[in-house]
Amino acid sequence: MSSKQVIFFVIMIFIIAIPTAYGQGISIGEKAEQKSVEVVISSSDEIHVKHVIASSNSPRQVELIEGTVTNLTVLDEEGNEKQFGSIGDNDSIMIYPSQENTIVEYDLGDIIFLKDNVWTWNFRYLETTSFILPEEVDLIFVNDRPVYLDEKKGIACHGCQMILEYSIDEPKILKNIEFDNKEFLIEIRTFAEINQFNFDQTTKSISFDFNGEKQFVTAIIPLELLPIPHNVYMGDEKIFFHEYNNNGTHVWLNIRPDNSGNVSIIGTIDINDEKSTIQNNSSTSVSNVSQDEIVYILLGVGALIGLVVIVIIMRKRKSLVTSREIQEDNT
User: Fold this and answer.
1) If one looks up domain 3-166 in CATH, what number appears?
2) What's the predicted TM-score (pTM) here?
């Protein structure tokens, strides 16, 4: 047995002797270099984690993601089992020196919870982590901020500390609106109850009664029907919202009211009013130009009259001077 193996087994014995109650936060060896960390979430609360650990000539400690760890395996790149030691209650593991990458995999439980139809995970892990979300999910929330996945499978989080939230099979409410001889479709996605939906053509605003607490509401709004930017009100009080995923024809708008009430979404720019304003300004401009021309004409006439008066006065003075000179010569 080599000296490295002897040292490794001594470390393992020391680790095993540590009481489990004091395992949390213990650091024995050097921190392992992690090439990647991948978290795959199934359509339920099942989570599978995979760490790829870079090769090393000495034992390395790998911190596992918080939760109940089961089915833990440590393999080489060919799928062969490798020696390792557990620290505490599977909070971390110590892996044996290797000239190739080491694959650490396990299932994670008791960490993601369903509340009010929203799956929530208060996640903290300081390594760069990739999340693969269930296929049914195309919209997630990271610290209350919406992230539209579209055709992407997930997200990457760097030095990650976040509250991850998402819903599965979120109901979609479709509303057809006729305006200006056109038909528009508004889609609302939420588990909350939506009643009394209305589009006011005069104010160009959407309103509906929201029945729920802390439920996400996402409205996909045609820009031609309700141009941006928007204001959102709960009753008479303006509330916080996110506006995102603007593809040139539609914009996604998300709110999360604390309580039930009437919600109004109002476009702050009315295209028809803007056109009317432009036309009014054009008329005013023509009128102003005409008045300016009149003023210039009057000023010109006044200047001309003044010039004539000055010429007459100067001629009179000249004639008086000439008469005096003639009289003096006769004398």
Assistant:
1) 2.60.40
2) 0.71
